[in-house]
Amino acid sequence: MKKTYLLAPGPTPVPADALLAMARPAIHHREPEFQPIFQACRDGLQYLFQTERDVVILASSGTGAMEAAVTNFLRRGDRALYVNGGKFGERWGKILGAYGCQPVEIPVAWGRAVDPDAVRAALDADPSIRAVYVQASETSTAVRHPVEALAEITRQRPDVLLVVDGITAVGVFDLPMDVVGIDVLVTGSQKALMLPPGLAFAAWSEKADRFMETADLPRFYFDLATERKKQRDNQTAWTPAVSLVVGLAAVLDRIQRETLEGVFARTARLARATRAALGALGLRLFAPDAPSDASTAVWVPDGVDGVALKKALRDRFGITVAGGQDQAKGKIIRIAHLGYADTFDVITAISALEMALAGLGHPVAPGAGVAAAQQVLGGGA
Ligand SMILES: Cc1ncc(COP(=O)(O)O)c(C=O)c1O
Question: Which of 29, 45, 75, 61 minimizes the C-alpha distance to 230?
Answer without folding.
Answer: 29
